[in-house]
Description:
The structure holds three protein chains of three kinds.
Chain A: H1 2-28, E1 39-46, E2 57-60, E3 63-74, E4 79-87, E5 98-103, E6 110-115, E7 127-129, E8 131-133, H2 138-152
Parallel strand pairs in A: 1-7, 2-6, 5-8
Antiparallel strand pairs in A: 1-4, 2-3, 3-4, 5-6
Chain B: H1 2-29, H2 36-51, H3 55-77, H4 86-124, H5 127-133, H6 138-176, H7 181-191, H8 194-222, H9 227-257
Chain C: E1 4-15, E2 18-29, E3 33-37, H1 44-51, E4 59-64, E5 67-68, H2 74-81, E6 84-87, H3 99-110, H4 115-128, H5 144-155, E7 162-166, H6 174-191, E8 194-199, H7 202-208, E9 211-216, E10 219-224, H8 226-230, H9 235-242, H10 259-262
Parallel strand pairs in C: 3-8, 3-9, 6-7, 7-8
Antiparallel strand pairs in C: 1-2, 1-4, 4-5, 9-10
Helix pairs in contact in C: 3-4, 3-5, 6-7
Organism (chain C): Marinomonas foliarum
Domain ABC transporter (chain C): 6-242
Keywords (chain C): ATP-binding, Nucleotide-binding, Transport
Amino acid sequence: MRSKRIELFVGAFIVVGIMAFVYLAVQVSGLAFSDKKDTYQIVARFDDIGGLSNRAKVTIAGVNIGSVESITLDKDLYMGLVTMNIDSDVDNIPTDSSIAILTSGLLGEKYLGLSIGADDEMLTDGGEIFDTQSALVLETLISQFLFKAGDSE
Amino acid sequence: MKMVAELGAALLNWLESVGRAGIFLIQSVFRLPVRPKESLNLLVKQLYSVGVLSLVIVVVSGAFIGMVLALQGYSILAKFGSEEAVGQLLALALLRELGPVVTALLFAGRAGSSLTAEIGLMKATEQLSSFEMMGVDPLRRVIAPRFIAGVICLPLLSLIFSATGIIGGLIVSVNWLGVHDGAFWSLMQQSVYFDTDILNGFIKAVFFSVAVTWIAVYQGYECVPTSEGIGKATTRTVVLGSLAILALDFVLTAAMFGDF
Amino acid sequence: MTDAYIEVQNVSFSRGERLIYENVSLTIPRGKITAVMGPSGTGKTTLLRLIAAQLAPDSGAVLVDGQNIHSLSRSNLYKARKKMGMLFQSGALFSDMSVAENIAFPMEEHTKLDAEAISNRVLEKLYSVGLRGAAELMPSELSGGMARRVALARAIALDPELVMYDEPFTGQDPISKGVLVKLIRQLNDSAKITSVLVSHDVEESLSIADHVCILAGGRVIAEGSAEEIKASDNAEVQQFLNGEPDGPVPFHYPESSSVADKVSL
Lengths: 153, 260, 265
């Protein structure tokens, strides 16, 4: 029957539309439908966060272990306060680890790289990394280079 | 002095027609159906002619635009040695802009014009008056199912467009140009966010669908019921619809992505 | 005076700048066929739309069965319209429905009959216009005369008290005209329907009308039975009835004195 065929087509159309939505969500944006991963928060203060943005990656040895949750200004110290979520299964970061703002590639995004320390105590929720290395700002680098060149002359 | 008065008159005229179109929309959509089953049947029929019949053009255009985007993006990104980022380029361009905008433009040309022509012809052949004479509200019976079908179909079509575009781009960049597929996907997944990109693109498509379908059914309903009048109304649907899409896109983009 | 079903009282109506009716009054008697005739462009169709309240007059009132139709609320108006059937000039069949669905539509919309009862009544109505065999066709497959007969079957689907015919004979071949004349007469006599017929086909209209109104230039120039109209000594009426090219209605469209200067070819 004519109307049955139309109904079938319309049903198929809606199914295809929903499939496209799921495909975009799962495959393209990498949205995971499983429960949100358990994380714990740590903070770090930087002299200069230089272009780091929310949701930037946090890595150890280049492996993604978490993301930046928020960036605010510490009004007392005039430093950038970065709060990040670290996956709970990575629970063995020593408290004396250092963290640096790095750039992927020449023009790529900024991300955080953790270098592991040697302490026996591990960071827990609310812990802070004190050894921080700020972003490299091109203008600062150039002026340092110029002044050094001037000194040696 | 006269010019100011003319400007005021033009503004009032415009406001009046916008108001009429608004009342028209409210009267057609927010009136409860008398026979729910019958209304559902009508809606299914319209979903078919508005959505299913637009599917071919949307899928074909989506695939080709994705493929072209991959080719162009690759040739530029290769200069910086970062051809893996082609996936990222493809996904962001399609999800944020091209998906909703191009689909809406195609929709205005394919479905919008045929809605206007169909309603205009029903008016010219007195079918609309005939409904009225039978004590059946033509807004509820003729306009409402068409409007609702349009609003449902366009966002779905835009999702299908983006998905086929990404698949087309994937085929060109990975299978043809030799981009590493792991890097293709991982860079894409890193930079595409479900809420800012996919949902925002979807919301855009919803806005476009309301604007285009509203214009199409209103132009059909208000057209001069002659062959010339229907022709003009159809053209107006496509022109006004496309302009509305582009203007809305600018406003929505500024609102959604403006803080970057 | 006979019992009036419709009374048009001092109605004025203008479309834009153009005055179509000026203080027109006429009555349409109950249970009879009334023909409203007049040259093209005198707003005969407008009269039907005023009666059906698709248009509202600038002043005056239209009483249908004693009710002022223009003062009704929307839902009451829709209720009142269920008692009216209208045969549109173009037929106005719904192009996405078959013949049977077209006729079933008003019943499905307004009655609580089940599918079987509706289909029986559809066939009955189709039989009365002689098109029972065409039930499954689509409107696009019908000839002009058949489409009008189907539209007539649809107009009487709800057994209305009033049927309005908008130019039923225009563009029909002589056989179709004959069929329509017979159908209109039959319907009126068998179901005691009040019929209003708008037409400029003098012969057919006069042959079935019990009551005739002639409109011209925004007013009623003659009203009475067919015989009275034929015997009228009004020059305008005689010109219209006999189809004389020149008379009170001039052959030349009125021109302003400067036309000759403006038209330069």
